[in-house]
Amino acid sequence: MIRLSLKTEPFWLDLPAGVRVQVKPLDMTIYDAAIAEARKSLPPLSQNDEDTDISLRTAIFNSRFAIALGNYGIVGWEGVGSEDGSPAPVDAVHVEAFMRVPAIGSSFLRLYSASAAAVVAAGNA
């Protein structure tokens, strides 16, 4: 049985370094929009070095996917500062810089995706 009891309000994710992000519930609109955004940034495959191309394309996709999910999903954060130390606004420039920190980007991607996977695991898709 599937119970349709999805989150409808933003919630907080705890990330490394004492950072917290408030996110919209992850739904198909956000997920598909992030995939489409990430795909647009992929370079074409070359004939010369297919293995390297696939590794590079995967890395580019994962990075751009995390940035796109952040741009579509993050509505607030705590513990994120601008270069001058003042609180950073949640905007495309700061979200991209935020996601380029490996520990942050990978944790965000794992935790935000897990929020939707937990619903499915509980039978709530």
How would you describe this structure to a colleague?
With 125 residues, this protein is mainly α. It has one domain. 52% of the residues lie in helices and 10% in strands. The protein has four helices and three strands. A hairpin with a 5-residue loop joins strand 1 (11-14) and strand 2.
Sequence of strands across the biggest β-sheet: 1-2-3
Overall mean pLDDT score?
A: 87
Task: Tell me the structural class.
Answer: mainly alpha
Work out the helicity level.
Answer: 40-55%
Separate helix tally: 4
- C-alpha Rg (nearest Å): 16 Å
- Describe the main β-sheet briefly: 3 strands, antiparallel
**DSSP strand content:** 5-15%
Secondary-structure element sequence? EEHHEHH
Distance between the termini: 9 Å
Rough outline: globular
Low-confidence segments, ≥5 residues, pLDDT <50? Answer: none
Give the tally of structural domains: 1
Give me the count of strands. Answer: 3
Question: In terms of topology, how is this protein built?
Answer:
Layout: E1 11-14, E2 20-23, H1 28-40, H2 50-73, E3 74-78, H3 92-99, H4 102-121
Antiparallel strand pairs: 1-2, 2-3
Helix pairs in contact: 1-2, 2-3, 2-4
